[in-house]
Amino acid sequence: MVKTIQAWTRKESEKIADCRIFSVHQATAISPVTQAEHQFYFMDTADWVNVVPVTAANELVCIRQFRHGNEQITLEIPGGMVDPGEDPAVAAMRECLEETGYEAKELISLGVLNPNPAIFSNKLHTYVAPNAVHVADIENTSTEHTEVQLIPMEQVADLLVAGEIDHALVTSTLWRMLYFLKR
Fold it and tell me: What's the pLDDT at 159?
């Protein structure tokens, strides 16, 4: 017998920490099965974007940057937060230009992902930018320093499998791009 999963009802939610780029909330939710109340925690943050810039020479425009969570330099694609009221595609073009100096004149959606629905309330909007063109210097902030690395597209799958590119949201975006390229 197959049971139907039902949604829980959120009774209340309280912000317990404001961490600048995200906030932590404690929520009370009611089980649809037992009607019992349980405490849960989640993080609320703006939606995010990832963009896969590809040059006319079929090179993936990547960035290297230091990440404070794992205290390592990572190889990633441009991405970041969607500003309040900003269209995700506009945010993707902005992030691409700021972090790499490459302009994304055209974007093709690779879809929307849930970064981690167990604890995050936001979405990740993913795009590929064919024919990205270098037009400017990198515009890093005082807390963000990136370096551009061009990677031949035929090497991307090997870098993913080898773990050279291991940021989960970046890898899911790149695997989606590779899948769509085969179609």
Answer: 98
133 in Cβ contact with 103 (< 8 Å): yes
Query: In this structure, are residues 96 and 134 in contact, taking their beta carbons and an 8 Å threshold?
Result: no
**Domains with residue ranges and CATH for the chain:** 9-44 (no CATH), 48-182 (3.90.79.10)
Cα separation of 165 and 153, whole Å? Answer: 13
Half-sphere exposure of 62 (CA within 13 A, CB side): 26
For residue 85, the tally of other CB atoms under 10 A from its CB is: 5
pLDDT of residue 3: 75
Q: What's the mean pLDDT when you consider all of the chain?
A: 95
Q: What angle do CA 121, 177, 43 make, to 5 degrees?
A: 10
Q: What is the mean pLDDT of residues 54-80?
A: 96
Q: How far apart are CA 93 and CA 78, in angstroms?
A: 9
Rounded to two decimals, the pTM is 0.92
* Alpha carbon distance 129, 153 (integer Å): 13
Over range 81-91, report the average pLDDT: 97
